[in-house]
Specification:
mainly alpha; two-stranded antiparallel ribbon; 2 strands
């Protein structure tokens, strides 16, 4: 209920012409001169993406690593950049926001730059961007009809008044984004990624950069996003978690993840990836290493 009240307040603020007040959010204490600008830029990006509360969540997440002795500036910068990338995920609302920004609408309402982007989403992806109370019954119907993966083409264009007006309406829907199914899933994924980084620092610190970089597997929208998420989850569940739990011994965890990522193709059945993971686990059980890892 709190989320709906917040969304209604934000909507009312839009109607009466208010905006997020430009007040600097406090960065975590002790950030080095190399890290602070990266975090500050990410905060601005996430305020534009969703608002100040969302940017504050980003700062809270960064704060978990900001004062750790085992997290130097290069690693913290990488976490900060990839965290911002994943938190500013590409749903249709985000693409409309980016199109408006790229178009650079002047005071006369005319776009300075021509923007005409065509995107291909899945129908369940579009519905998942809606508030849960609306999306859930729609997804039930779509699922019953077997239409979950039905492709839907959307055009984001700022070449005329009508296109610009549509982009503004679509970007305005950000006020309801935090009530969506997609937002809830993204929040769970980000927290799991951060948890894996934390566990890696404790269990296998030499592999932590590989875990951090695994976030790059999940990008974009449509089928590529779906495949990336599925492949990331399979690698984490089949290799990384068992190593951290002591159920699987991999002397070079980074190399194993890299080998698995090479086989992570856009395949719904994940045939090549499952085969690669099985080979890695078999070698681990036999106590052997791949020829590529030998000196």
């Amino acid at each position: 209920m709190t989320g709906y009240l917040d969304a209604m307040r934000s909507t009312l603020a839009e109607i009466i012409g208010e905006r997020d007040r430009v007040v600097a959010l406090a960065l975590p204490d002790g950030l080095s001169p190399a890290v602070a600008p990266v975090v500050s830029d990410a905060v601005e990006q996430l305020i534009a993406f969703q608002g100040r509360r969302y940017a504050r969540l980003y700062l809270d997440r960064i704060g978990r690593f900001a004062h750790r002795r085992d997290v130097g500036d290069p690693l913290l910068i990488e976490i900060a950049q990839l965290l911002a990338m994943r938190m500013a995920y590409e749903d249709p609302i985000r693409i409309a926001q980016l199109a408006l920004a790229e178009a650079a609408i002047g005071p006369d309402g005319v776009a300075t730059n021509r923007v005409d982007r065509k995107c291909r989403f899945r129908i369940d992806e579009l519905v998942s961007a809606l508030p849960i109370v609306v999306a859930d019954p729609m997804l039930d119907v779509i699922g019953a009809l077997g239409w979950q993966r039905l492709p839907v083409k959307m055009r984001f264009n700022a070449t005329g008044w009508l296109g610009i007006r549509r982009l503004r309406i679509e970007s305005w829907l950000r006020r309801w984004r935090m009530l969506s199914i997609r937002y809830a899933k993204e929040r769970i994924w980000v927290e799991r990624w951060l948890h894996m980084i934390d566990r890696c620092l404790a269990k296998r610190p030499e592999a932590v950069r590989t875990i951090v970089q695994s976030a790059t597997m999940i990008r974009g929208y449509g089928d590529p996003y779906l495949y990336g998420m599925a492949n990331w989850t399979l690698i984490i569940d089949s290799l990384v978690k068992p190593v951290f739990a002591g159920a699987l011994t991999l002397p070079d965890l980074s190399a194993a993840i890299a080998e698995a990522r090479t086989a992570a193709l856009p395949d719904r059945r994940q045939t090549a990836l499952k085969s690669a993971i099985a080979a890695i686990r078999t070698r681990a059980s036999a106590g052997t290493v791949p020829a590529s890892a030998m000196p």
